[in-house]
Amino acid sequence: MLRGLFTAAAGMQGMSFMVDTIANNLANANTFGYKRTTVDFQDLLYQTIKPAGSSAYQGIELPSGIQIGHGVRVAATRRVFNEGSMRNTENPLDVAILGKKGFFQVTLPDNTTGYTRDGAFSLDQAGNLVTSDGLRMEPNIQIPPDATAINISAEGIVSVVQPGNLISQVGQIQLASFVNPAGLAALGNNLFVETEASGPPITSNPGQDGLGTLEQGFLENSNVSVAEELVNLITAQRAFEVNSRAVRTGDEMIQTAVNLKQ
Questions:
Q1: Can you tell me the distance from the alpha carbon of 221 to that of 217, in angstroms, rounded to the nearest whole number?
Q2: Which terminus of the chain, N or C, has less C-beta within 10 A?
Q3: pLDDT of 167-217, one tens digit each?
Q4: Domain coordinates of the chain in residue numbers?
């Protein structure tokens, strides 16, 4: 009886974690470049009361045994890097990656490299392309102060128009990819960093080595499906309620057993 209480409590904890994850996905439904997170569960250890194949009688083996589990636990959270829809902003500094493979590179305050799908870039006081947090794109691209127009090609070539209709190339945007992007660690602020699980970054120009191309004046929306997340939320809520009822039932059974002595 007591085992059932702890087993159901493990289920409640797992469903509570799932609700937390779904809530974070819904909260970021309008976050540019956000990739939704899913939860993987694993069943816990089993107590083997009678192993399968053991002898019931001389020369007769049991076709199945007796095992009882101890609930569930969260095994992992995984990022789903499917491509989100595109939003037209008409801002020449906004850039979207067309294709699910590829990340923009930015220089973090500790001089390490961060990776993002959020292409909402701006110019700092020196004309450098930076994120909304002021992090410079890597490799750095600087726009001349007298530029009258900025053009970013699908292959990542950044050129500007200067007085006299002089067109100059000022930089090349490079993208990074990973063998296992699900292994990246999220820092918040739409940033990821590499880990041993993700492997080292593989950098190349957009459109090469399977990387996506760029689209100027667009931003990638979150890939969260609100309808799907709400269905998952209802499923997690019902599973939580069922586990809580199992706890209540176990408590009532113990109470019944206690009352038998009175």
A1: 13
A2: C
A3: 999 999 999 999 999 999 999 999 999 999 999 999 999 999 999 999 999
A4: 2-81+228-259, 86-220
Residue-level pLDDT at 231: 97
Enumerate the β-bridge partners of residue 113.
107
Length of the chain: 262
> Can you tell me the distance from the alpha carbon of 74 to that of 72, in angstroms, rounded to the nearest whole number?
7
Burial class (CB in 10 A: 0-12, 13-18, 19+), 142: middle
- Residues 143-165 have pLDDT tens digits of 999 999 999 999 999 999 998 88
Question: How many helices (H) does the chain have, and how many strands (E)?
Answer: 2, 21
Amino acid at 129: L
Q: Say how far residue 147 (Cα) sits from the centre of its chain.
A: 38
How does pLDDT run across 113-148, given as a tens digit for each residue? 999 999 999 999 999 999 999 999 999 999 999 999
CA angle 167, 105, 147 (to 5 degrees): 20
CA-CA-CA-CA dihedral for 120, 107, 23, 179, to nearest 10: 100
Distance of alpha carbon 205 from alpha carbon 201, whole angstroms: 13
Could you tell me the pTM of the whole model? 0.88
Encoded tokens for 130: 């930076």
Rg of the Cα atoms in the chain: 27
Q: Which distant-in-sequence residues (6+ apart) come within 8 Å of 86 by Cβ?
A: 96, 98, 215, 218, 219, 220, 221
Whole-angstrom distance, CA of residue 86 vs CA of residue 28: 16
The model's pLDDT over 209-246, given as tens digits with 9 standing for 90+, comes to: 999 999 999 999 999 999 999 999 999 999 999 999 99
Which residue, 215, 246, 226, is CA-closest to 93? 215
- Block residue for tokens 């779904």: 22
